[in-house]
Design goal:
It is built from 12 helices and 9 strands. The protein has 267 residues and is α/β, with parallel strands linked by helices. The protein has 2 domains: 9-209, 2-enoyl-CoA Hydratase, Chain A, domain 1; 212-258. The strands form 2 sheets. The chain has a 6-stranded mixed sheet with strand order 1-2-3-4-6-9, with helices on both faces. The longest helix is centred in the first third of the chain and has 16 residues, at 35-50.
């Protein structure tokens, strides 16, 4: 298929109460990510961060795959196949920055893996806090097969989240692994049958939405820093201290004692 055609659309951002959902919408290309999609995603992640009414972000795909990864035709062009002038009108994507911004997103993030996940989209999913996948999922990372040295932030993420052995295996061999292996190495954090995916994600999202948002956001930041060996102890302690004087802590303790469900306002 001609890479200049666009058989799909930009992703869609929807909000339902405290939950934001981003849906990839290029099903004819297995939700391949194009340059404009990366630019769009970065804008929407910033929008989610600035909207304090949002407590959870879900990312999923349409059709039979989560995503087939980044547009290799575009990557080929940007490595010299076309004169630079022909690329000037196209938005220059920074895929690495996009994944860093997703990983650091203020709210908990859930990748709803409705099918296979390939190439760069494996890092899109890995940048999320949770990855709920179906038993018919599979994945591969073809960087070494393409002669591509993966970007450093991605390598750090794979090692910190999957471990050095799994990261080397997937990057060096470019082999395809199936859902059970994805679950074993921690790429999939919850494995379900295809017909159970919607309910599993809905249940997880409800649980996440019910927690005290500022406490979750602060602990998420600290845990990400701990995983990368970059923990700012002073900042983490300051967030913990701030929570001790919060209205949400008062509500949480009151609800615990009254054996009722807490209702957190985020302050």
């Amino acid at each position: 298929m001609n890479s200049k055609t666009d058989p799909g659309q930009l992703p869609l951002l929807e909000q339902d109460g405290a939950v934001a959902r981003i849906t990839l919408r290029r099903p004819a290309l297995l939700n391949r990510l194009q340059a404009e999609d990366v630019v769009w995603l970065r804008e929407k992640f910033a929008q989610v961060n600035s909207d304090l009414s949002i407590r959870v972000l879900v990312i999923t795909g349409t059709g039979r795959a989560f995503s087939s990864g980044y547009d290799l035709d575009d990557l080929s062009e940007r490595t010299g196949a076309l004169p630079a002038g022909e690329l000037a009108a196209k938005p220059a994507p920074d895929f690495s920055a996009m994944t860093v911004e997703l990983e650091a997103c203020r709210v908990p993030t859930v990748a709803k893996l409705n099918g296979p996940v390939y190439g760069g989209s494996t890092d899109l999913a890995l940048s999320c806090d949770f990855r709920v996948g179906t038993t018919d999922c599979e994945m591969f990372m073809p960087a070494s097969r393409l002669g591509l040295h993966y970007y450093t932030e991605g390598l750090i993420r794979w090692e910190s989240r999957l471990g050095i052995n799994a990261a080397k295996n997937l990057f060096f061999t470019a082999r395809t692994i199936k859902a059970q292996e994805m679950f074993r190495i921690g790429f999939i954090t919850e494995l379900v049958d295809p017909q159970e995916l919607d309910d599993a994600v809905t249940n997880l999202v409800q649980i996440l939405s019910d927690q005290a948002p500022r406490a979750v956001e602060g602990m998420k930041q600290a845990l990400n820093e701990i995983a990368r060996g970059t923990l700012d102890h002073e900042a983490s302690d300051a967030r913990a201290k701030a929570c001790l004087g919060s209205a949400d802590l008062v509500e949480g303790m009151s609800a615990w004692q009254a054996r009722r469900k807490p209702v957190f306002a985020g302050n």
